[in-house]
Amino acid sequence: MKKLITTMALSVLAVGGVRAAVFFVPLGPATFNLNTTVYAPNQQSAKTNQTATSTNITQFFKSAVIKTPFSSSNLLALLANSFNTNFPAGSQIALGPGGLFVVDSSGTNIIFSPSSVISFQSDASFFPSTETLITTQNASGTSQSGSLTEELLASRTMTYDDTLNTTTDGTHTKFTFRGLFTVNKTENLKTGFVKATSQFQGTGAGTVRDVPTLLTGTISEKSSGTQPGF
To answer: CA 194 to CA 142: how far, in whole Å?
Structure first.
């Protein structure tokens, strides 16, 4: 198993100069609040009314859309179909700046990376930050403490495409999901402990198991952990 750690390179301006840093975000299980919408055309029904002198046939024609919740378990099932495999019981989805992963029931170990099917592209990214750095010098030496608050704001596109795969049921999925991806994190500069919340909100379209589909909603995540090196 591989310990679940995702980083994104970033230079951070600190008090007294520039220090090298990384945009470290510990990952945790993602919460999917998505809906899929499919079109249901040509629904028909008829009613016959007979009298002594005539027969009346009334026909009804209707087209509609069907909206269905799409959760992390639905995505896990979709990935299992795309890769013609099964994931262990309790498997979850984690989503962060570094991509999307299947993790175990603890949420801390990567068990599968679907990067050949799910890819991401950021059109523009911004990294606002606020840092308070305290440097203390005494008989014990020099130490640093303080806090760092960072954000990631990005226009992001997630693409799902398994058309080159041999799937379990023979169907294929190809869609894009576009929107605003945000990460808000705080870090204790003395201990390296990080808390982060992520949200990916948007809309998309394509096919899910060969059915034309619209997708709307948000994917969110809360996580915490200690930055490597502490």
So the answer is: 22
For residue 20, what are the β-bridge partners?
Answer: 11
pLDDT at 8: 35
Task: Give the three-class secondary structure for 54.
Answer: coil
The pLDDT tens digits for 141-170 are 998 899 999 999 999 999 999 999 999 999
Please report, in angstroms and rounded to a whole number, the separation of the first and last CA atoms in the chain: 22
Give the 3-state secondary structure of residue 127. coil
Owner of token pair 């058309």: 163
Q: Tell me: pLDDT of 55 over 50.
A: yes
Residue-level pLDDT at 48: 87
Classify 79 as helix, strand or coil. Answer: helix
Distance CA(209)–CA(75), nearest Å, equals 12
Q: How many residues does the chain have?
A: 230
Residue holding tokens 């009314």?
A: 49
b/e 148-178 (16+ beta carbons within 10 angstroms → b): bebebebebbbbbbbeeeebeeeebbebbbb
* Interatomic CA distance for residues 8 and 185, integer angstroms: 13
Count of Cβ atoms closer than 10 Å to residue 31 Cβ: 15
